[in-house]
Specification:
With about 160 residues, the protein is of the alpha+beta class. The chain has helices at about 5-20, 45-50, 85-95, 105-120, 135-155, and strands at about 20-25, 30-40, 55-65, 75-85. A hairpin with a 3-residue loop joins strand 1 and strand 2 (about 30-40).
Length: about 160
């Protein structure tokens, strides 16, 4: 078995090519941090599950072959998807960060968004920080900016 640092470097290369991370919002009151790796073989996603937890699920994607004549053929491609959310995603991104190249800026933004989530203050007695606490206007504004920046980075070739 390789040392963890070597596995992390390898995983970072896989993530740069086959992974995705992002900040997903539903309205102004909910924000989700997600990270996933999708491949046609289970080995890469399984490595991520070993390193960072989470799960691997098998799925099928519908693909269409380019039109070449009178018809366009449809076929189904099996894929394997590893995914994590919230702290698990932020922690995985932090560990991969030293080796990321293509997705480094996206990862840094997603980590920042998770820190905003974790820093929310509760209201009233017995309500702590984090989950379920309302966002301030400044936090909502920054989360919206982060989401837009990550989306823009995904469009850059």
């Amino acid at each position: 078995m390789l040392p963890r640092n070597e596995l992390l470097a390898y995983a970072a290369g896989l993530f740069d090519g086959e992974g995705c991370c992002g900040v997903y919002t539903e309205g102004h009151k909910h924000c989700a941090i997600r990270m996933h790796v999708t491949m046609c073989t289970p080995r890469g996603p399984s490595l991520f599950a070993e390193l960072f937890g989470g799960h691997v699920k098998a799925a099928t994607w519908r693909r269409k072959k380019p039109a070449g004549g009178y018809y366009e053929a449809t076929y189904y491609l099996p894929v394997y998807i590893w995914s994590v959310t919230a702290d698990n995603a932020a922690n995985a991104l932090r560990e991969l960060l030293p080796w990321l190249r293509e997705k480094r800026a996206q990862a840094e933004l997603v980590i920042e968004a998770r820190e905003i989530q974790r820093g929310r203050k509760g209201q009233g007695v017995g309500i702590g920080r984090g989950h379920g606490s309302p966002y301030t206007e400044a936090e909502l504004t920054r989360l919206g900016e982060i989401r837009a920046e990550v989306k823009a980075l995904k469009r850059v070739s």
